[in-house]
Amino acid sequence: MKSTKIAVAAGFLLAALGGYAEAQQPHGQELVQQCVDLAEARDGSSLGTHLVRSNNVERYVEGQPFELKVALEGHGNTFFNLDCMVKNDGAVSFRGYAESGMPAE
């Protein structure tokens, strides 16, 4: 009986943690989209029409400043590596971008 209670408690814990991880993913994608939108607005180019190839948003910890890197696929072998900053309060600011032959990590 005791092992059954432990198994049930473990199941609830895993379900709660799984739900937490899933809840963090959409917020992270919102930060990535804000970075892309800000880059397009500031640069005035078609950066927003390129596909997001990679980003480092999975390392983001809410409530702490974070340097967000987003790589967009360009034409041919070009990547647009966006550099954004996420402040403690979650506000995103665009700092610039570089064109490269490889996505930034």
Number of strands: 4
> How do the helices and strands follow one another from N- to C-terminus?
HEEEE
Derived structural class: alpha+beta
* Rg, Å, rounded: 18 Å
Relative helix content: 40-55%
* Mean pLDDT across every amino acid position: 78
Categorize the overall geometry.
globular
C-alpha termini separation: 49 Å
Query: Which percent band covers the strand fraction?
Result: 25-35%
Main sheet record: 4 strands, antiparallel
- Taking pLDDT < 50 over at least 5 consecutive residues as the criterion, the unreliable ranges are 1-24
Strands of the biggest beta sheet: in what spatial order? 1-2-3-4
DSSP helical segment count: 1
> How many domains is the backbone divided into?
1
Can you put this structure into words, describing what you see?
This protein is an alpha+beta fold and 105 residues long. It has one domain (2-100). 40% of the residues lie in helices and 28% in strands. It has 1 helix and 4 strands. The chain has one helix at residues 2-43, and strands at 52-55, 66-73, 79-86, 92-100. The chain has a 4-stranded antiparallel beta sheet, with helices on one face. Strand 2 and strand 3 (79-86) form a beta hairpin. It starts with a helix and ends in a 5-residue tail after the last strand. Residues 1-24 have low confidence and may be disordered.
